[in-house]
Design a protein that fits this description.
Blueprint: E1 12-13, H1 16-23, E2 32-36, H2 42-49, E3 54-58, H3 62-72, E4 77-79, E5 96-101, H4 107-116, E6 124-132, H5 133-139, H6 150-155, E7 159-167, E8 172-173, E9 180-187, H7 197-208, H8 216-223, H9 227-233, H10 246-259
Parallel strand pairs: 2-3, 2-5, 3-4, 5-6
Antiparallel strand pairs: 1-8, 6-9, 7-9
Helix pairs in contact: 1-2, 7-8, 7-10
Amino acid sequence: MIKAKKSLGQNFLIDKNIIEKIINSAAIKDKIILEIGPGTGNLTEYILKKNPKKILVIEKDSNLTVDLKNKFNKKITIINEDVLKINETSLFKEKVTVFGNLPYNISTEILSKWIINLKDNFWFDCLVLMFQKEVAERIIAEFNTSNYGRLSIISNWKLNIKKICDIKPESFYPKPKVDSSLLCFYPKKNFVKINDANNLEKVTRIFFNQRRKMLKKPFNQLFNGNQKILNKLRIDLNLRPQNLSLDTYYKLTCEYENLRS
């Protein structure tokens, strides 16, 4: 058994039932597939059985890259690189389906990077990604709940998200200390047009910097108490950040951009 590297957040998926659920979550036949962190290739093996047009895998661990080459030969294209340093849009000329058992220590960073850099012409049809359960709950959280926050708002901006299942530690080697969840992300046809996604990141960061405090201070910091915006979006400054809907944050970001244009 290959030894997992703790520094890379490696936990190899070994549960065949979970692997079946993953590959049945999205269309694979005749599609270009991108797999993030294939590890020992257990999921890759099952994807190949579904007859994809092509498989690219991104694996940072050089030792695992050698093992994957030996195991699959020329059946897959292997990129030995850090996924955070790759421009995915440069890899393909058509849309892809992405599978990823993401390293827990950088999972939110990977997702945020993809969303912040996402143009209106999506480079993927579907993302099938595994997260620590606690992170997944923050991603899919609805407003007025304790898990709702920046990650919920940014993730749901351009994407519809569906939870597939929860996964126990026993499905991995070595066993993580936490449960996991499998999520599917699909491009939205309609979403609020924001000129620069970094502005959404900034607005949510300032509002949730003190999530238990009322909205007055962050609103004044961004909008200098602009009463027209309050009236237009019907915002009560006595509320807290988690009480504003997704749509309100997207519209607030548009107002922020308008003030600076």
